[in-house]
Specification:
By secondary structure, the chain is an alpha+beta fold. The protein has one domain. It is built from six helices and five strands. The strands form two sheets. It has a three-stranded antiparallel β-sheet with strand order 1-3-2. A two-stranded antiparallel ribbon has the order 4-5. A hairpin with a 2-residue loop joins strand 4 and strand 5.
């Protein structure tokens, strides 16, 4: 399911449960298929380098447009979507297909975004991944009536 500009702006209330995360939802979301590296003690010079080679680094750049700050701290480098993730039609609706689904890694097989967030105390309105999943979940339920 492709998110529209209208649905991206609507406020989202997290109601997801571990049991809500099923393949039928995942094929329309694929938020967890974005590969990110969480790095410790990264200095400004390295963060600027990562950005210069086209990677997305969180936190975002500051006012000076070079880096978030001059301090050394943890950051997240977004590598982008998994190379096995493809867009396609799923049940007549735009969605996502893993081209190695039957041979995917154990981590991918067992991953549940809600369980992970609960275990790491990140089940909250600041969790961008869960907010996307919730939007897709809500849209699917609206479509099904």
């Amino acid at each position: 399911m492709v998110m529209t500009k209208e649905t991206e702006k609507e406020p989202v209330k997290l109601t997801l449960r571990v049991s809500d995360i099923k393949p039928e939802l995942c094929v329309h979301c694929a938020a967890c298929c974005t590969v990110e590296l969480h790095l410790n003690n990264v200095n400004s010079r390295m963060r600027q380098f990562y950005r210069s080679v086209g990677l997305t680094v969180k936190p975002d750049v500051g006012i000076d447009k070079k880096d978030c700050c001059e301090e050394t701290h943890d950051c997240t480098v977004v590598l982008g979507p998994c190379i096995h993730l493809k867009e396609g039609m799923v049940g007549g609706v735009a969605g996502y297909i893993c081209d190695v689904y039957d041979q995917r890694s154990q981590l991918c097989q067992e991953y549940n975004c809600v369980a992970w967030a609960l275990a790491h105390n990140t089940y909250n309105s600041h969790n961008e991944l869960l907010l996307k999943v919730q939007k897709v979940y809500d849209q699917l339920h609206q479509m099904r009536g």
